[in-house]
Design a protein that fits this description.
The structure is a single chain. The protein is 66% helix and 0% strand. The protein has 6 helices and no strands. The radius of gyration is 21 Å and the shape is elongated. By secondary structure, the protein is mainly alpha-helical. The longest helix has 43 residues. The relative contact order is 0.13.
Length: 145
């Protein structure tokens, strides 16, 4: 863990090099090449190649989005449990009022500041970006893909 860069508002987004710098460019380029090939050789085979190329690019995006959605569901569950442990009794009944995006943003708040920030989030209906800007003691999430 010593090689991990501390996270904060400016440095918490994460890029997956294999996805962002290899898969997307390769499949994107494949669609462009198939389109150019179809333009210069308008026949059934190049049209099929373009269709398969687009389908492959869409599949890459969908596979990535499915994994992110599963992570969001796990984060939502973890944060609801964390809120249940850290919030005062009077606030626990309001946990279902948080949106998925708010819960995902709240995961970065330290245990000490979470109760106040959670109460403020519900009172002011804070957007995820505003929640992250309000965090003083950042709790890193190195597992997010």
């Amino acid at each position: 863990m010593a090689d991990k860069v501390p996270q904060n508002l400016a440095h918490h987004a994460r890029l997956d090099p294999w996805f962002h710098f290899f898969l997307l460019p390769v499949f994107g380029l494949m669609v462009i090449v198939a389109l150019v090939h179809l333009i210069f050789h308008p026949r059934l085979h190049p049209a099929g190649l373009l269709l398969v190329s687009i389908a492959a690019l869409v599949a890459v995006f969908k596979i990535r989005l499915y994994a992110l959605k599963v992570q969001d569901r796990v984060i939502r569950l973890e944060e609801r449990q964390r809120l249940n442990l850290l919030l005062p009794e009077a606030m626990r009944s309001r946990i279902p009022e948080f949106t998925e995006r708010q819960l995902i943003a709240l995961r970065f708040a330290s245990d000490g500041e979470l109760p106040d920030l959670a109460e403020r989030t519900l009172a002011q209906n804070l957007a995820p970006a505003d929640i992250k800007k309000s965090i003083q003691s950042w709790r890193p999430d190195y597992w997010r893909v």
